[in-house]
Amino acid sequence: MQNKTIEWIILVTDKFEESRNFYKNTLGLEIIREVPAEHFSQFAMENCNLAIYGRNELEALVGENHIGNPGGAIYTFAETSDVDGLYQLLADQGVEFIKEPKTQSWGQRTAYFTDPDGHIWEIQQWVE
After folding, report:
1. d(Cα 13, Cα 123) in Å, to the nearest integer?
2. CA distance 107 to 77
3. Domain containing residue 46
4. pTM for the complete prediction?
5. What percent of the chain has pLDDT over 70?
6. 2 in a domain, yes or no?
7. How far is CA 87 from the centre of its chain?
8. In this structure, what CATH number is given to the domain that contains residue 16?
9. Spatial distance between the Cα atoms of 32 and 24, rounded to a whole number of angstroms
10. How many CB atoms lie under 10 A from the CB of residue 116?
11. How would residue 73 be classed by pLDDT, with cut points 50, 70 and 90?
């Protein structure tokens, strides 16, 4: 395999408008491309493209037997220099965390939340 980079993370959503508002308004990500008829929004990230795609529209594209349940096996993360500060900022914005910040045995401080479809997000920082 020649290309060994990940260019896109696309999250399947059953709640397009709610998810769009979550990523845009709650998390504060800038929308850089949208295709409203396809229920598709792309958000600005530093290291790859993050997008949400409506389940029905994606199933029409690739076939309904190929799309799993939203949130089922998706696990994404965002690295930060201050998990506790980002945790508080996001909690103040209405993000509901499933796990509060905790220092893990492997040397990271982590916290976990879900988006409207149940996709699990980890915020993490390496600690010394």
Report:
1. 21
2. 16
3. 8-126
4. 0.81
5. 87
6. no
7. 15
8. 3.10.180.10
9. 11
10. 20
11. very low
63-93 core/surface letters (b: 16 or more CB in 10 A; e: else):
eeeeeeebbeebeeebebeebeebbeebeee
**What confidence score (pLDDT) does residue 81 get?**
92
Read out DSSP for 9-78?
EEEEES-HHHHHHIIIIIS-PPEEEEEGGGTEEEE--SSSEEEEEEHHHHHHHH-GGG---TTSS-EEEE
Domain count, the chain: 1
Tally of residues, the chain: 128
- Is residue 1 in some structural domain? no
Which single residue is written with the structure tokens 């409506």?
54
- Tell me if residue 91 falls in helix, strand or coil: helix
User: Does residue 59 belong to any structural domain of this protein?
Assistant: yes
Residue with tokens 């796990």: 99
